[in-house]
Structure formats: C-alpha cells, structure tokens
Amino acid sequence: MPSRPLSRVIARHTLGLSDPIHEADIPAEEHLNDGLPQSLGSCIDTYGLKHLKVKISGGQASDIDCLNRLQSLITRQGSETIELSLDGNERFGSMEAFADYWHQLIGRPGLRSFLERVIFIEQPLARDVALSQTATKHPTIRQATPPIIIDRSDDSLNSASRAIELGYAGTSHKHCKGVFKSVANACMLQGRRLDQPQATWILSGEDLCNQGPISVMQDLGVAASLGISSIERNGHHHCRGLADHPMSIQ
Amino acid sequence: MLEHHPDLYHLSDAGWPTLHIKAGCLEIGSVVNAPLDLSFTPSLEDYPFETDLTF
Lengths: 250, 55
Fold this sequence. Notes:
The complex is a heterodimer.
Chain A: E1 8-15, H1 40-47, E2 51-55, H2 60-76, E3 83-87, H3 95-106, H4 111-115, E4 118-122, H5 127-130, H6 133-136, H7 141-144, E5 148-149, H8 159-165, E6 170-174, H9 179-195, E7 202-206, H10 214-226, E8 230-232, H11 235-238
Chain B: E1 9-11, E2 17-19, E3 21-22, E4 25-27, H1 29-32
Antiparallel strand pairs in B: 1-2, 3-4
C-alpha cells in the first residue's frame, strides 16, 4: 500500500455508446440546460479532461465511427494529451476474438496512432468465459493489445489473482465490492510490480455515480489510500451535485 | 461542504456545489485530511422527515 494517500487524482470521464460527442449531436428537445456540460466536447472544455473511458460495442463499423469522431474532436480541441481506456462491455467470447477485433481497429487508416493512447482495456470477455483458461488462451495477448483488466468478473476474493494467472494486467476497485477486497488486490498487484517491474499492473477505480456529501468523500478517500491515480467518475456528470441537500450542508 | 472542502467542491454556474474538476483532476487534500469523515458535524435537522416526502 502507498505510504501516503494521494492528494490529487485524475477524474476519468465516460463516453457511453449513445452519449453525444458534439453539442450538435444533442436534439433540441434533449438539451438539459442545467448549468453543467452535456456533450463530451463541452466536458473536455469545462473540466480539461485528461482521461476518457470509451465504451465499445464490439461492432467494428460503429466503434470505428465513434473512435474516428472522438479523434477528430480531440484533435480539433487541441487536447492531444488525452489518454483513453476502453470498456469492452463483455462483448467478446474469447481473447482470440478480441485480438482479431483489435487488429482490425488498428489496421484502419488514421486509427493506429490514435489507439496508442489506450492505456488499458476493461473486461472484453463475457463473464461466463472471462476467467476460463480456454477462452483466455492466446499466445501473445500481452504483446498484441494494450493491457487488459477484469471488472465485472472481479466477483470473489480470489478472482483478481485468478485473472492475473490467466494473463490479465489487473482489476478495478469498486467501493460496493468491498474495501478490504480492494486492499488485498492492491497489495497483490504491488507484489507483482516488485516481482515483474517490466510488466504493467493496473488497479483502476470507478465511482459508480456515487454522490456527495458522504459517499464521494469515502469513495475518494479509499481510492486515494489504495493509490489509484485515475478514477472513473461520473456522479457529478449525471446529478446536480449537492443541489438537493439543505443549504446548511451545501 | 464548500467551506470545509473548497478544493473538492465549487459552485456551479447554476449556483449549487458540484465537484471542482480542473485540468482533468480533483484536488482531494481536504478529503485525505478528513479520512472517511466530513470534517464537520452536519445538521440533520434540515433534512425532511420521511413522512414529509412526497413522490
């Protein structure tokens, strides 16, 4: 565990499959006008985002279109240092199928250099096969794609260790899955870093849209103690902060 | 929250407190200094009782 909690963390913003990338993507009747940015472009402008989590569908045409539009937006806004994680959303049946998909993506003109920004990929395989030796068998998966972590498959005390043995690079902390389970995972991954410093080992984190005043504090405090420097955070994007709390709390 | 955690929260343009994300980051020094706590005792008297809620 880190000797001190982090005092600053990156807020990783999620782009869902149907989320608007540009303001022009939002139909007039769906403009929220709630004082918060709505499209991804507005969020990048407002928050100066460094990390994005992009959900993929597994459909090459739609994913390529989304990634091309995202690349265009980032280039136009001059946000050239933005890095990405991809959420595979359990859309694949084996690592072999995912590796084929990935090679199709990076084979597209213009996407290869953009996809060098991907720092890890989350849960590409369906839960029922994600920790199966047969489905995860791939001779070069650690070299062929960015690091891959489990997320939804991390459902027991030993699932992260099992995933590491199968070639995954880590897992994701969610408060609801147990604080001490994440402490154990953080220590296990730190052990791997010490044993194999040349490899990448990842403990990601997600806020699951938790809200202030109390849950945000506890969630961030635990993540900072675990040393998670980049946390998916969407609670502030989908709800109106502390607007529904009494003024004395605000 | 605004008074005790000015690094974590700021006022949105609409006038209510929301997380202050700047340069893509959250400053959480005040969170770390109040581990798993709020740094103050909230007044719960201002929350409506369950019987006052309408749906």
